[in-house]
């Protein structure tokens, strides 16, 4: 506990020294009435102390969601963001805009590893779109061709490669 007391005293000394440095630098370049000097020093010290206190309070705390909140955040049409409470079809762009990854988001709010990142209806719509355009069918079509014998001869001649240098050997 003595270390904590020393740290607090050191922080207070730092605020006083920092306040003195800032005020002296300000006064050296700006005209300040002597009557306003006390107010300038006290307001500068209060501002610095307030910054130190807000930095301690601004430490990231884990806002763990309850299981009921997690269930309510998942709807068929959208996922409700724990950051702003708005519905999104996919969370990736929203989280990236807020400087988070999916893993950091899950960790911050205590979400399970299988928490979805896209709404169910959106995923189904994208899958149906892919199927209707024939995506993913290449493997099914290629498998029978690979099993068939490769006796067919191409009508196009093989492409000629670069001419090779002649191997010149010197015989004596």
UniProtKB/TrEMBL annotation:
Residues 131-172 are annotated as: Disordered. It holds the Pfam family ROS_MUCR. Transmembrane segments: none annotated. Belongs to the ros/MucR family. This is MucR family transcriptional regulator. It comes from Methylobacterium longum.
């Amino acid at each position: 506990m003595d270390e904590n007391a020393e740290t607090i005293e050191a922080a207070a000394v730092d605020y006083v020294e920092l306040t003195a440095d800032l005020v002296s630098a300000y006064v050296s370049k700006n005209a300040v009435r002597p009557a306003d000097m006390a107010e300038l020093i006290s307001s500068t010290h209060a501002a610095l102390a307030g910054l130190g206190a807000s930095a301690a309070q601004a430490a990231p705390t884990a806002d763990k969601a309850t299981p009921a909140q997690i269930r309510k955040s998942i709807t068929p049409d959208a996922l409700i963001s724990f950051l702003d409470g708005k519905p999104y079809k996919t969370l990736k762009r929203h989280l990236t805009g807020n400087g988070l990854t999916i893993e950091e988001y899950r960790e911050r709010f205590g979400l399970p590893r299988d928490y979805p990142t896209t709404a169910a209806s959106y995923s189904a719509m994208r899958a149906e779109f892919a199927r209707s355009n024939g995506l993913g069918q290449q493997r099914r079509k290629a498998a029978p061709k690979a099993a068939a014998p490769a006796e067919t001869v191409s009508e196009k001649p093989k492409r000629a490669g670069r001419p090779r240098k002649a191997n010149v050997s010197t015989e004596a």
